[in-house]
Structure formats: C-alpha cells, structure tokens
C-alpha cells in the first residue's frame, strides 16, 4: 500500500477515534435525557450517524460508478468497491441498532413501515452489487453491471429520506433537516453533530485502507495473470 | 478474544454506573420513571453492536491486507 494512503488513513483513524471518545463521553455523561423515551433515545447518536455514513458511502459508490462507466478508470471502480463495503456495514449498524430503540419507543422490534423496508432494500441492493460483480466470467462486464447496480441503488436514498413525509410511518418526522430549523435541544444537536463527525472520520479512514487493499488485490491478480500468460522456461515441470 | 474482554469490562463498568451519572438531569419526575433497566440494556446492546461491527471491519481489513502483502512479497 502506498505510504500516502497508509498515513492519510492512519491520521483520519486517529482523529476519528479521538472524536468517537468525545462522542461517548457526551452521550453517556453530558447530553440531557429525552423526556418521553428516556435513556434509550441515546441510541439516536449512533443510529443517525450510521445512517448518514451509509448514505454518503452509497453516494460515493453511485458517483464513482457513474464516472467509471464514462472514463473506465480502474481507480474509480476500486473506490466504489471500498465505499460499498463500508456502506453495507454501516447500513447493518442502522438495521441492528434501530430495533433496540424501536422495541422501547414503539413496542416492537420491527415493522414493515416504509423507511425500515426501504433501508432493508438498500442493504440487499448493495449485497447484490457484490454478487453481480462476481457473477460474470468476464470481470470487466461484472464491473460494468455492478456500476449500474451502484447507481440505481442510490436512488433508494432520497426515497428513504422522504418516506416519513410521503407515507404513514412509525418513524418521527425530521428533527434536524427542517425548513424552520432543527427542533432538537442544542445539547442534543451538538452531540449529534459530534457523532456525525466521528462516524465520517472513521469511515473515511477505513475507506482509504480498504481502497489500498483493493489496489493490492488487483495488483496481485494482474501479476498472477501475467505469470500464467508468460512463456514457461524450457524443461519446466508440467 | 482481547476485543471481547475489553467489551465485557466496558459492559460491566457501564451497567454498574448509577442512573444519575448519565446526562445533565431529567426534565421532570415522569421522565425519571420512564428510565428503566430495559432502556439501559437496549442502549448498551445497540452501542456494543456498533462497536463490534466497526471493530470486525477493522480486523477483516487488517487480515486481508496482511494476506495480500505476504502474497505480493512472495
């Protein structure tokens, strides 16, 4: 892995860890407890940043995939793969932490309401992104098909965001991105923004390492292909 | 294994903390009543899941990086 990627990833990772420690102090010792839901509402400070990072990651996948289809630059496909893997993991965090909040706030672990269903669909679309990639014998075709899935999958993100206003939903209406400004308590808002910053830094750190890994994987694959195609020395064992 | 030990220690410390240690205080008495053990347990499990997923990703990337680096050096 190039030193630039390694050191950038490490620097972002250290910053991310420091911000995450601040976030945990704020969540457990500083932020006021929400009046109706009680302490379980503090899941909000990890659930919402995870959703933000997942959407951002899939946005990166869509942009990189779109430009990859246009320019055919291998680096964009590698960045899309790295972002898609992170996006899937952060979507898993969203899907796994939400039910623990929902169980107390709504009285149920899961409901097939629009936002939950569309988020689960997003998770499966990007699982499909990796399946499609490996489903063809021609790797270049697999990359192109996956790029299309990456672009189409990102169309689900605005639907998830708007689903609470378009449909009847158990999820509350937006409390931050509102036309008349956030309705959250200022301390809660500050904690949320620290959470968003921490998650973003941690994600980009791992994204860089994952991108470096993908580069090395492909370098190894190219070397193996070159070795197979190279003329064998005379008298080599068959 | 070490990761799980750290998580177990953090869990023990977290569960041993009194309710008053959390936050700046409640808005009213009803809200205090709404804070039950289930809320704490659910919150702790949710945070633990997030940590496990992120740490799992770190370990996975590190292992794969090590494997590829070894293969490239061979």
Topology:
The complex is a heterodimer of chains A (238) and B (74).
Chain A: H1 3-30, H2 44-71, H3 74-105, H4 114-133, H5 139-154, H6 156-166, H7 186-229
Helix pairs in contact in A: 1-7, 2-3, 2-5, 2-7, 3-4, 3-7, 4-5, 4-6
Chain B: H1 2-16, H2 29-34, H3 37-73
Helix pairs in contact in B: 1-3
Distance between the termini of chain A: 34 Å
Number of strands of chain B: 0
pLDDT < 50 runs, ≥5 residues of chain A: 232-238
> Count of helices of chain B?
3
Can you tell me the residue ranges of chain B where pLDDT is under 50 for at least 5 consecutive residues? Answer: 18-27
What is the assembly state of the chains in this entry? heterodimer
Proportion of beta-strand residues of chain A: under 5%
Mean pLDDT level of chain A: 89
The two chains with the largest interface, and their residue counts, are: A-B, 42 and 37 residues
Overall pLDDT confidence of chain B: 71
Distance between the termini of chain B: 30 Å
**Overall 3D shape of chain A:** globular
**Tally of separate helices of chain A:** 7
Q: Main beta sheet of chain B: strand number and arrangement?
A: none
Rg of chain B, Å, rounded: 19 Å
How would you describe this protein?
The complex is a heterodimer of chains A (238) and B (74). By secondary structure, chain A is mainly alpha-helical. Chain A has seven helices and no strands. The longest helix of chain A is centred in the last third of the chain and has 44 residues, at 186-229. The two termini of chain A are 34 Å apart. The model of chain A is unreliable at 232-238 (pLDDT under 50). Chain B has 74 residues and is mainly α. In chain B, 78% of the residues lie in helices and 0% in strands. In chain B, helix 1 runs antiparallel to helix 3. Classes of the chains: A mainly alpha (238), B mainly alpha (74). The A-B interface holds A 1, 28-40, 42-43, 46-47, 50, 85-86, 89, 92-93, 96-97, 100-101, 103-104, 187, 202, 206, 209-210, 212-213, 216-217, 219-220, 223 and B 14, 17, 19, 21-28, 30-31, 34-36, 38-40, 42-43, 45-47, 49-50, 53-54, 57-58, 61, 64-65, 68-69, 71-72.
């Amino acid at each position: 892995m190039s030193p630039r990627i390694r050191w950038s990833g490490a620097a972002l990772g250290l910053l991310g860890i420091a911000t995450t420690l601040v976030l945990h102090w704020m969540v457990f010792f500083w932020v006021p407890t929400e009046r109706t839901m009680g302490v379980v509402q503090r899941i909000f400070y990890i659930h919402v940043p995870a959703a933000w990072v997942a959407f951002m990651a899939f946005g990166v996948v869509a942009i990189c995939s779109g430009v990859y289809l246009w320019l055919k630059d291998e680096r964009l496909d590698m960045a899309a793969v790295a972002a898609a893997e992170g996006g899937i993991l952060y979507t898993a965090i969203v899907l796994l932490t939400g039910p623990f909040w929902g169980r107390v706030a709504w009285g149920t672990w899961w409901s097939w309401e629009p936002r939950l269903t569309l988020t689960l669909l997003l998770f499966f679309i990007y699982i499909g992104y990796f399946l499609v990639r490996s489903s063809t014998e021609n790797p270049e075709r697999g990359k192109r098909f996956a790029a299309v899935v990456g672009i189409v999958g990102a169309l689900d993100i605005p639907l998830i965001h708007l689903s609470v206003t378009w449909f009847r939903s158990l999820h509350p209406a937006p409390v931050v991105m509102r036309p008349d400004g956030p309705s959250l308590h200022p301390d809660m808002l500050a904690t949320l923004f620290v959470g968003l910053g921490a998650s973003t830094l941690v994600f980009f750190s791992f994204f860089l390492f994952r991108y470096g890994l993908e580069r090395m994987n492909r370098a190894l694959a190219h070397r193996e292909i070159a070795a197979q195609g190279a003329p064998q020395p005379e008298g080599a064992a068959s | 294994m070490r990761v799980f030990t750290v998580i177990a220690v953090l869990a023990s410390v977290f569960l041993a903390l009194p309710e008053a240690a959390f936050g700046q205080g409640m808005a009213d008495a009803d809200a205090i009543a709404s804070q039950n053990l289930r809320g704490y347990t659910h919150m702790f499990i949710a945070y633990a899941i997030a940590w496990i997923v992120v740490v799992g990703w770190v370990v996975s990337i590190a292992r794969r990086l090590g494997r590829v680096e070894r293969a490239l050096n061979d």
